[in-house]
Amino acid sequence: MAALFAFKCSQCGEVHEGSPSFSYPEPAPFAEQNDEVRKEGLLNSDLCRYIDEEGPHFFIRVCLEIPIQGVEEPFLWGVWVSLSEESYLKYVEDYESPNPDGSFFGWFCNYLPYYASTYALPTMVHPQSGGSRPLITLEQSEHELCQDFHRGISPEKAQEIAEIAWHR
Predict the structure, then answer these.
(1) 11 φψ region: left (φ > 0), alpha (ψ -120 to 50), beta (else)
(2) Can you give the residue ranges of every domain in the chain?
(3) 55-73 pLDDT, tens per residue?
(4) Is the Cβ–Cβ distance between 59 and 48 less than 8 Å?
């Protein structure tokens, strides 16, 4: 059986138990919009859409799980991805009864601490049944986050990332 994750934080001295989990309340492009665009758009805990001078934009909230080597639970990021209008509408239509065998292409739409720009990394979105948020997989690339997703991270690296995220 894998171990549980725990560490004494070098920043605050507290012992943190359980795999780290961080989330973003909105996609970065929505956060960067002016008040008028934001007011006319939609943002709730799972969906976001707005129209700006470039046209309409559609986002859903998803989970990115990064395995921690030797640890039972992954490092969890609650992030947003952009979808095409067609995929977004299909996702909304199937929201109550998603097809866990289906998937959508999306672009990563948050900037994670520690990593070089994570914005616009290509993803695949995998709906989950039972009311769970979709999971994403990152396409293979040389980007460090993609490498971490596919290979997992050491507990030491998980601690380093968590400390940066908690104390930024």
Answers:
(1) alpha
(2) 6-166
(3) 999 999 999 999 999 999 9
(4) yes
